[in-house]
TrEMBL record:
Quaternary organization: Homodimer.
Gene (name only): waaE
Example of a GO biological process term: ADP-L-glycero-beta-D-manno-heptose biosynthetic process
Protein residues bound to ATP: N191, K192, K193, E194
Organism the protein comes from: Campylobacter cuniculorum DSM 23162 = LMG 24588
Residues covered by region (Cytidylyltransferase): 334-466
Protein name in the entry: Bifunctional protein HldE
InterPro entries: Bifunc_HldE (IPR023030), Cyt_trans-like (IPR004821), PfkB_dom (IPR011611), RfaE_dom_I (IPR011913), RfaE_dom_II (IPR011914), Ribokinase-like (IPR029056), Rossmann-like_a/b/a_fold (IPR014729)
């Protein structure tokens, strides 16, 4: 899929609050004699595209042909934006183009100084007219709302109406708790906190998430309901609820993660990628972004390298896994097996198992364990090879290799919520069933088994020798 996307170059329009992120890197190793505060010695400054401009930068990094439409003042920040974006900016005199100065010391943000106006723009009609003239030339539109006064209710409604007339996907990163101005959009991308405020819910756990995201979709006439859940991944509602698990391993800075998510969603929809696959890719993008400091953009090459280097991190010890699961409050699904020669039956079984909860852990028999169970001719593939194959599957979250003949000790240690076995275990004793809240039996895909594959290969060898 990434190979396909890397060859696409859709035309995407970004409208919204364009701003400048200025990073001031400092050394804070001394305390002031004048007051009990640190002295910050400036080491370097780094200007970056922020707000809607960061969405633009992400799209450019993916290879999209991007155009920016917005309103700025007559200042150095506006000049920086014009120099770095292909754009049409309406000028409003005496208006400050948003500038955010972030003070960074020892790789930590310690202070942010904002210089901006957030009053509604005075040129709504001109902005709408400009949009109406150029919208037909694009395959997707993003409204990036940072509540700085550009995307007023009047502007949003006019732009959404025009996009719908043209049958162009229009995606919105919302602000505030009144989403009525976004009614009719393709999708919104509120995070959990923003969705709670808009829905006026106390929490979005369990059934509340399903009811809440469905309500967002229905109340605001959206094509898809989407809520980003930070470490919980992305919740998607089309005709049913999907939870796409997060991929981040180390989180250093969430700045700009929302910009990256809406950028890749727009890129995917403009490239005719199904929404659920688009959300899976968005999770991968977000994982790269939060592993860095500051607003950054991600290329498909970087995303490919990130995936290659990180799937092996899903292979872990039971002790390390318990640390990772601590405090996550997720429904954990567990299954186990040899998975010696991975085949379609395995894939179907594991994908169904993953849909039963928030995380899927696969307990994998070690090489010595398989030899004791199946004889000296097995396994065909080593435990590391088998673990890597499983870890490369997007619906497998963790793989733990166990040495014992049964997974009883592993289940007892991890305490999963759901234990999954094949339907052939019906009316049979299931090891670990007494340790979990629920046991689920899943149908195997007919006609697939490792033993049959081995027999087929051996039969072909015999035919060749004859």
């Amino acid at each position: 899929m990434l190979e396909f996307l890397s060859k696409q170059s859709p035309k995407i329009l970004v409208v919204g609050d364009f701003m400048v992120d200025n990073y001031i890197w400092c050394d804070c190793s001394r305390v002031s004699p004048e007051a009990p505060v640190l002295i910050a010695k400036t080491l370097k400054e780094d200007k970056r595209l922020g707000g809607a401009a960061n969405v633009y930068a992400n799209l450019k990094a993916f290879g999209a042909r991007v155009f920016a439409l917005g309103v700025v003042g007559e200042d150095e920040s506006a000049k920086f934006l014009k120099e770095n974006l292909t754009s049409k900016f309406l000028i409003q005199k005496n208006r400050k183009t948003p500038l955010k100065n972030r003070i960074i010391a020892h790789n930590q943000q310690v202070l942010r100084l904002d210089d901006e106006d957030n009053e509604d723009i005075e040129c709504e009609e001109e902005l709408i007219e400009e949009f109406n003239q150029i919208a037909k030339d694009f395959e997707a539109i993003i409204l990036s709302d940072y509540a700085k006064g550009v995307l007023t209710a009047k502007v949003c409604r006019a732009l959404i109406k025009k996009a719908k007339e043209l049958k162009i996907p229009i995606l919105i990163d919302p602000k505030g708790n009144d989403y009525s101005k976004y009614k009719g959009a393709t999708l919104l991308t509120p995070n959990k906190k923003e969705a709670l405020e808009a829905l006026k819910y106390e929490n979005l756990e369990g059934e509340n998430l399903k009811f809440g995201i469905e309500k967002l979709k229905k109340d605001f006439d959206l094509t898809y309901g989407v809520i980003t859940l930070s470490e919980g991944g992305i919740a998607l509602f089309d005709t049913t609820l999907h939870i796409i698990a997060a991929r981040a391993l180390e989180v250093y800075d969430v700045t700009g993660a929302g910009d990256s998510v809406i950028a890749i969603l727009a890129f995917c929809l403009a490239s005719q990628i199904p929404i659920i696959k688009a959300c899976e890719i968005a999770n991968e993008v977000a994982a790269v972004v939060v592993s860095k400091i500051g607003s950054v953009s991600v290329s498909f090459d970087e995303l490919k390298n990130f995936k290659k280097s990180n799937f092996e991190n899903k292979i872990t010890s039971k002790e390390e896994l318990l640390k990772r699961l601590k405090g996550q409050n997720k429904k954990v699904v567990f299954t186990n097996g040899c998975f010696d020669i991975l085949h379609l039956g395995h894939l179907s079984y594991l994908e169904k198992a993953r849909k039963l909860g928030d995380l899927l852990i696969v307990g994998l028999n070690s090489d010595s364990s398989i030899k004791r169970l199946k004889g000296d001719t097995r396994p065909i593939n080593s435990q590391f090879e088998r673990a890597c194959m499983l870890a490369s599957l997007y619906f497998v979250d963790y793989v733990v290799i166990f040495e014992e003949d049964t997974p009883f000790e592993l289940i007892s240690f991890l305490k999963p919520d759901i234990l999954v076995k094949g339907k052939d275990y019906e009316n049979k004793e299931i090891i670990g069933a007494n340790l979990v809240a629920k046991v689920e039996l899943i149908d195997y895909k007919e006609g697939f088994s490792t033993s049959k594959i081995i027999e087929k290969i051996q039969g072909q060898k015999n035919d060749t020798h004859n």
